[in-house]
């Protein structure tokens, strides 16, 4: 059976952030689905809820699993949601997981600080779009720069999403995962704060640190990330 890939985006962005990965997977002949979480992308008019976000992932995974073994890939918030989903008490039909830019527990002072900064950005006249554009221009190559914002930025869903993440027991979820698992982080990613803990909780996992890269590893180093996708898909294929 053919490996199926399900891609889950991070906060504020949408399924369009995966354009480089979708192009790579299409060329490789690997079927892939990139979902939009509630309150994001094509679902911008919906409220973000944790239940609906996890249901969105579950629906995409179970549909894909009818056609073959599933490689689930999540970035940032999407990675945290994917860890919680795969590490639930009732394991879903996922054959392997790539969790990118999410080696941090969404709680405490770090989460509070992030929410304060996000709120400050939203209070600006343009809701921080000028700053966001400058950051993307300074860090993301031209070929993928437009992908993060192509589906719009989910500014209204941001605080609700961050608040929801705080109830997830990511540590317990990571400890329960037994399938092939890759954590992919940029060298300078701010969400590596609990990487050592994750290494202890998931000793079988592979940790890939991408040099000279920050949080947006999929767009900053698309060829590197795509190569890792290929390795993970080959691993799933061999195990199946």
Structure description:
The protein is α/β, with parallel strands linked by helices and 240 residues long. Helix content is 46%, strand content 13%. It has a six-stranded parallel sheet, with helices on both faces. Helix 1 (19-28) links the parallel strand 1 and strand 2 (32-35). The longest helix is centred in the last third of the chain and has 18 residues, at 222-239. The termini are close together.
Question: Topology, please?
Answer:
Layout: E1 4-8, H1 19-28, E2 32-35, H2 50-65, E3 70-75, H3 77-86, E4 96-100, H4 108-122, H5 129-139, H6 142-145, H7 158-165, H8 170-176, E5 181-186, H9 195-201, E6 206-210, H10 217-220, H11 222-239
Parallel strand pairs: 1-2, 1-3, 3-4, 4-5, 5-6
What class do helices, strands and sheet pairing give? alpha/beta
Count of strand segments = 6
Q: H/E order of the elements?
A: EHEHEHEHHHHHEHEHH
Mean pLDDT: 90
Q: How do the strands of the widest beta sheet line up side by side?
A: 2-1-3-4-5-6
Radius of gyration: 17 Å
Beta fraction: 5-15%
The unreliable regions are: none
The largest β sheet comes out as: 6 strands, parallel
Q: Approximately how much helix is present in the residues?
A: 40-55%
């Amino acid at each position: 059976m053919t490996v199926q890939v399900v891609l889950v985006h991070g906060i504020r962005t949408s399924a369009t952030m995966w354009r480089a990965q979708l192009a790579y997977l299409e060329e490789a002949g690997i079927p892939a689905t990139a979902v939009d979480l509630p309150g994001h992308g094509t679902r911008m008019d919906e409220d973000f809820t944790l239940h609906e976000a996890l249901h969105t992932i579950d629906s995409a995974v179970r549909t894909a699993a009818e056609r073959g073994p599933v490689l689930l890939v999540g970035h940032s918030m999407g990675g945290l949601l994917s860890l919680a989903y795969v590490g639930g008490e009732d394991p879903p039909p996922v054959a392997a997981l790539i969790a990118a830019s999410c080696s941090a527990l969404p709680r405490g002072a770090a989460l509070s600080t992030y929410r304060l900064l996000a709120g400050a950005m939203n209070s600006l006249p343009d809701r921080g779009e000028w700053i966001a554009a400058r950051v993307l221009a300074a860090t993301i190559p031209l070929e993928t720069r437009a992908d993060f914002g192509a589906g719009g930025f989910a500014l209204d869903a941001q605080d609700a999403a961050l608040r929801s993440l705080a109830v997830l027991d990511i540590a317990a979820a990571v400890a329960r995962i037994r399938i092939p698992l890759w954590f992919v982080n940029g060298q300078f990613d701010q969400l590596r704060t609990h990487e050592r803990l994750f290494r202890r909780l998931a000793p079988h996992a592979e940790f890939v640190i991408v040099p000279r890269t920050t949080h947006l590893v999929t767009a900053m180093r698309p060829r590197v990330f795509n190569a890792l996708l290929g390795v993970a898909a080959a691993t799933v294929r061999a195990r199946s």
